Amino acid sequence: MSEAPPRGKRFPLSLQQLGSPKAGGAAAREAREAREAREPLKPQGHWQQAAAIKAKAVPPSGLGLDSAGVRQRMVKRLRTEGLADERVLQALATVPRHEFVDTALAIQAYEDTSLPIGHGQTISKPSVVGRMMALMLAAPGAQQRGHLGKVLEIGTGCGYQAALLMQVAKQVVSVERLKPLHDKARHHLVAYPAVRLVYGDGMLGHAPSAPYDSIISAAGGDDIPQAWLDQLAPGGRLVAPMTAPSGRGQVLVLIDHVRDAQGSRFVRSLHEAVLFVPLKSGVM
Ligand code: SAH
Q1: CATH superfamily to which 119-278 belongs
Q2: 50 C-alpha vs ligand 1 centroid, how far in Å?
Q3: Does 203 contact ligand 1 (Cβ within 6 A)?
């Protein structure tokens, strides 16, 4: 049951309820007119307001404005777990991983897990990407240079690792064999013009931009393709997953192109077990 409003508050209001006596109303109107004559209308004020509102807008990821905070917490965990290279940690703290995955997965973007990126592929775990980057930065050539120089990445995927690499390199050339992923990465990497995206079979490397100071693969085959060794500059380092010598599972392989008084050679070492998607030939 609804109550009737008190009599005095009924609308429309009576003239008396409108307030000021007539003389006062006229004075107020004159004052207003004088003020308006001095101050031109400012319709652009609305545009400024709109821009301010847009700047404060919360991205539809569910992470809101605090994605930097969530990223910092991820970096803190990775540091506790043993990732020590400050440049890599800084890169991981900078690149918004949630913007490289589907909106529905954004909430998981700062967990140390691989996530699906479509077409049967996955974005690698931050700890593994971090570990591979740290191994590359520890190469004598990279230490002298202070960065990774010119990098070849095999397996662009969604482009996340390419964006990370760009934080510690001069140039990144990244090859992807699946056209829809190549296109998706192009979209994700508009803010990274120094990343060159190539649609092609990365098993062949990318000869037009060779040689590379650093080569990194995000997909693992039974062996390291000869083209990668051919395109690795003297002093350069390659890091990739590869089928373990036992034939079961994968391990990280590190290859240095050493050139000294004894000539030029490739020095190979095997590291921890990893799990990457298979390196496949041809394009799709
Ligand atoms: N670095 C990527 C990881 C993607 S997963 C990221 O941050 O998202 C590995 C990618 O390697 C897949 O997209 C797969 O299609 C690609 N790949 C596999 N074999 C390849 C080849 N021969 N050439 C280029 N890309 C390849």
Answers
A1: Vaccinia Virus protein VP39 (3.40.50.150)
A2: 41
A3: yes
